[in-house]
Design brief:
By secondary structure, this protein is α+β, with helices and mostly antiparallel strands. It contains nine helices and eleven strands. α2 (about 30-40) crosses α3 (about 45-55).
Length: about 325
């Protein structure tokens, strides 16, 4: 591997650390100097490098992540006031939050909360669970074309499977981050296994996990972050594009599926449909897919996978 590629990987790793820091500290003021310090760059160089790698400025990224998290809170926590959500997402006052929210989503926070969160998408139109079309979120009309709760409205298929509420253990992970279309994450897994294999981190019992850091019902698909991960034991020293993270233990809605590569949309829609009828509310945290096999070893080339969504107690 040449010097330029090593340098690119190191820069990407530093930017990933900044993204992780932002996600863990949304209630705090995060300015350019703080982010540059996390990345171990000067503020001047950090701004240029972050913008080049991520495609938006550091301040724009922080503002977008905070607003999208606020949007999630508005839908998932109907009993929490707009004021409280604004402060939880790091806004110093409600008026600045209100202006920023309406500028980004095109409606104010109260109007947004009254909208049903889209489950299905057909021809770019977002439909709620009660089949009513709702407006696209954001100034740039976004289409959701991934596996999260988004299939053609006339082709909804709900799978017959067992969904349970389980206490899932903490997951100690190493990851390679992917941002963009869901069907491209294989490239990140290739990088991860190429790095982990020679270091003895891949065995016959190794489990892979895809962790989703953004909600594609809110975040444009080209900016949705996904971590291609494997479960490891102990404190693994990482380098380059390979990072490490922890998914906390907790209560999850867990759906067990045995599906083909083309059936992930149906599996996710099954989970979303169940959640809307269950009475459970989504908990703040990342959803993930836990894979139990190598699909190429399956006689019908199927993935045996658990889809895990953090939920609050009833």
């Amino acid at each position: 591997m040449d010097y330029k590629e090593l340098s690119k990987q190191e820069y990407t790793a530093r930017i990933n650390r900044v993204m992780d820091y932002i996600g863990q500290n949304l209630d705090k003021t995060i300015d350019l100097s703080v982010m540059a310090n996390v990345a171990l760059f000067s503020p001047y160089h950090f701004h240029r490098i972050f913008t080049f790698i991520v495609g938006e400025t550091p301040n724009s990224f922080v503002s977008r992540i905070k607003l999208e998290k606020a949007a999630q809170f508005l839908h998932d926590n109907p009993k929490i006031s707009v004021n409280e959500i604004a402060f939880q997402c790091g806004f110093g006052n409600v008026s600045s939050f209100s202006r920023a929210f309406k500028s980004h989503f095109g409606v104010n926070a109260k109007e947004f909360r009254l909208q049903d969160k889209a489950i299905y998408v057909k021809d770019g139109v977002r439909y709620s669970k009660n089949c009513k079309p709702i407006s696209n979120i954001g100034k740039n009309k976004q289409q959701i074309n991934g596996q999260f709760c988004s299939v053609e409205f006339n082709k909804i298929i709900i799978m017959d499977t067992k969904i349970e509420i389980k206490h899932m253990p903490e997951l100690n992970l190493i990851y390679c981050r992917h941002m963009g279309a869901f069907n491209k994450i294989g490239q990140a897994y290739e990088k991860l296994f190429k790095w982990a294999g020679p270091r003895g981190l891949v065995t016959s019992t190794t489990k892979t996990v895809t962790v989703y850091l953004d909600d594609p019902a809110i975040t444009s698909i080209e900016k949705v972050r996904q971590d291609a991960s494997i479960i490891v034991e102990g404190n693994v020293k990482v380098e380059g594009e390979i990072g490490k993270s922890t998914v906390p233990a907790g209560r999850y809605a867990v759906g067990h599926f045995e599906i083909k590569e083309t059936e992930f949309e149906q599996a996710w829609n099954t989970m979303c449909s169940w959640l809307t009828e269950s009475g459970y509310q989504p908990e703040d945290g990342s959803t993930y897919e836990l894979y139990h096999n190598e699909y190429s070893d399956h006689p019908e080339f199927r993935f045996i996978v658990d889809i895990c969504i953090p939920v609050k107690p009833l």
